[in-house]
Amino acid sequence: MCDSFKKQLVELYNNGKSASEIEREYHISNSALYKWIRYFNSTGSFKEKDNKSELEKSYKELEKENRQFKMENDILKQAALIMGRKF
Asked: pLDDT digits over 56-86, tens only?
């Protein structure tokens, strides 16, 4: 669904229309509507990446760094084996 449609539904909710009325009228699920409301009211965006907490962003960055370090470590181990030294 396009963002303009989602925004219209969130605005209907914010202006007092009940969630159940919106869900029935527009044939959308309860969970989808509340997700859109939460996302839009907190950041003004419907994109998941824009709605991650700082902790989630930090965790993802640490996971990325960890993968990089593991790859570098594997390369160094292979180089050490080639050069005749074992760790």
From this structure: 778 888 999 999 999 999 999 998 888 886 6
